[in-house]
Structures are given as C-alpha cells and as structure tokens.
Amino acid sequence: MERVAIVGAQWGDEGKGKVVNYFSKGYEWIVRFSGGANAGHTIYYNNKKYVNHLLPSIIPNSNSKAFLGAGMVIDIEQLIKELEILETDFPGVSSKIYIDLEAFMVLPYHKEEDGILEELRKNPIGTTRKGIGPAYTDKVSREGFKIYHLFDEDLLKERLEEIIYLKKKIFGKRFKFKPKDIFSFLMNQKRKLEKLNVNFTSAIDMANVFRNTSVLFEGAQGVLLDLDFGTYPFVTSGATMAHGVSSVGFSTFELDEVLGVLKAYTTRVGEGPFPTEELKEIGEVIRKKGNEFGATTGRPRRVGWLDLPALRYAKLRSGLTKFIITKADVLNGLDEIKVCVAYNVNRDVKEIPTSSYDFFVGKPIYETLKGWPDTNHINFLKYMSFIEEKTGIEISHISYGPKTEEMCSKNDLIMKI
C-alpha cells in the first residue's frame, strides 16, 4: 500500500493543506505527525473556506480517516472548535478522528508563558503566542502532559500540583493558574471530545492498520523552520521534515514518496533570515495578489523571489522526491521573474547551503527569466523546467488557485499548451 509524506519545502505557508486535501481522496488515512495550532492549513470545500490548525486536511464526507500523532502538541480547546465547525456541515465527522494517547497537550498556561517570554526577550523571535514553544519545552524537560493523563484523574491531579508549584517558583506573581482550575478545564474538554465520539488510540495499536492500507502523512510548516535544521533560533519547536513520521512509528525508508510543496515565489512569517526578501514595490504587489497574510496570525507575510539554494537544501534534508508548485498564478502578468540560483557566502559561491548558518549570511545571486500572462503560457512551462533542471527534482502537479479542484498534473498542463 502507498505511503506518501507531504511537507513544506520553504518556510511554511506553501499551501500544503490544499495539496493534502487534493490527494487525500486516494488514501484511507491522513496522518498529521508534528506541530500544533501555530500552523494553519486552509482548504475550500463546496465553496466554503475551512482553516484547520490541528485537524489533518481530510475531505470531510469521504471515507478517509484522520490520525493526530505523538509528535504533535495538541490544544484540545482549539481541536474541539475545529470539530464543532465541521460537525455543523458534516454531522458525525468527528468519529473519523483518532488521537494518539502519546501526544502532548498545550495547556492554557502555555499560552500565557509564550507571551511572557516573548515580552522578556531583548529580540523577540516572532512566536505566534499559541503556547507551542512552552509546550515543547515542557515535553523535553519532562514537565508535560500527554493525552493519556486525561484518563487517570489521580495521576493528573498529582502532576498538576507538582508542575504548577514549580512554575509559580519560576514565574512568580505572573503565573496565576491553579491546579484545580486546570484539572476542571481538562475534564470538561475530555467530556466534549467523548461526546463528539473522537477515538483515542496509539501508533502501536495502529501499526498493522497503517501498514496494510494507504497513508498520507501531512507535515506542518516547512523544512526551513525545522527545529534541528531550520534557521535556528527562528524556527518552530518540532520536526517539520519527513523524518517526523518516526513519531507515528514509521521510518522514512518506508515512504514511497516525499512530496515537497513550494510556492512559485517565497514567503516567510515572523523574524529570521530571508535571503531573497523583496522590500521594493514588487514585493507588496505579490503580497496583495497572493493574499499573503498568515492563516493563524493574520500577520503580513514577508515576500521574496524563488530561492533555489533553499530548495536544494530542503531536498537533501528531507529526502524530497517530487515538487508540487503553488500560486504560480500570482506571478501572472509580470514581465520578468527573478530566481536566486546561488548564494555568495563570505565570497564563496554556494549552490547548496552547508548549514543553516548560510541563510543568515548568504547574498542571493539571481538569474532573470521572462514572465507569463497566465499559467497556460509556454514561459511558465520554461520556468518549471528551469526549477527542475537546477534542483534535480520533477514538478508533478501545479496549483493555480485556492480551491481544492484548482490543480492539475504537469502533463495535463503540457497538453493544454
């Protein structure tokens, strides 16, 4: 059975939600393996917009089921909101959602900590203040809570007393949460999940199921935001690359394909290096045409030209086998399109960054290509061929609009031209 991972090939916001939604009809399981509510995957179904921050991008009335893996940090309150929205239009859809008991929870005080820490920093890192960093910090420092803690009330109470005692010592009067209030909150959320008929299981219980059916793994954000290999410290707190499937009990060697989603240009939300950022008027033109505002934060995204060294880096780091290009229609009508083909790193020309440090110091070296009036034009086909030649990866599909169905294979496009 086919197992495919879809990850962002840039700094996130490439349109993975739509891409996963498009392919999901061919898979029995859609598995989200990392991240939390700081990621927003926008999909359109029956002309209605849905923004999922935690739910995998399944087609709600299909036979596909969704699994939230142990690599995630789950804000249960946000998850319930998303389920209730879907239940309004697709009654019973929650019964197709499975949550790994090993997944960690984002608690209300994590969001408070997120804001406090950001305000205390001399140079803020641009967190979404969704509590993701503090939740992952608690996970690593062994002060976190897993989903299974919801089903042992005595253990939950005991841990809440210990951990909140410690946090009050650290944060002092700023920390105003009480163990009994967090316990009541969690029990209330648990009852809501049970009423929605959400399933609780584990990757161990699902191991044989996943290996005897088709699975589409959905990544969050993009390779360049990976905790280990992204532009640290301006990264997220978890795994954004295909190796994150290990949290669901899989090896990358078990994957048939790793599809990297990229925009025809590049965007980034928040602080951090961005070698091809375009600060002139053309950047604002692309931002407005592409509606480049964060699905989670609403913040204007920084905009720049396509960065081939970054894509080559993503290819090697995450084992990308094919590309899917999105938002090429945003560049329609431009006379010229710039593409970064290499970096000048301290007078050394590099086609592939040696480490994430090169993103901080690299100066882009550009080539200029002819623009196109629309994506059915030969110049757009030449643009894709240029990307393929320079990265060594085939582009299999093109997304040319926000709707799920506004997508086609490259071969279909060639036939039109």
UniProtKB/TrEMBL annotation:
Q: Which residues form the active site?
A: D13, H41, K139
* Domain of life per record: Bacteria
Predominant subcellular localization, coarse grouping? cytoplasm
Q: Which CDD domains would you find in this protein's record?
A: AdSS
- What Gene3D superfamilies does this protein's entry cite? Adenylosuccinate Synthetase, subunit A, domain 1 (3.40.440.10), Adenylosuccinate Synthetase, subunit A, domain 2 (1.10.300.10), Adenylosuccinate Synthetase, subunit A, domain 3 (3.90.170.10)
Explain how, and how many, cofactor molecules are bound: Binds 1 Mg(2+) ion per subunit.
Tagged with keyword Ligase: yes
- Please tell me one Gene Ontology term that the record gives under cellular component: cytoplasm
Which amino acids does the record list as binding GTP?
12-18, 40-42, 301, 327-329, 399-401
Which SUPFAM superfamilies does the entry mention?
P-loop containing nucleoside triphosphate hydrolases (SSF52540)
Q: Where in the cell is it found?
A: Cytoplasm
Q: Name one Pfam family in it.
A: Adenylsucc_synt
Q: Which family does it belong to?
A: Belongs to the adenylosuccinate synthetase family.
As for what it does, the entry says: Plays an important role in the de novo pathway of purine nucleotide biosynthesis. Catalyzes the first committed step in the biosynthesis of AMP from IMP.
Q: What is this protein called?
A: Adenylosuccinate synthetase
Q: Which species is the source of this protein?
A: Marinitoga hydrogenitolerans (strain DSM 16785 / JCM 12826 / AT1271)
State which gene encodes it: purA
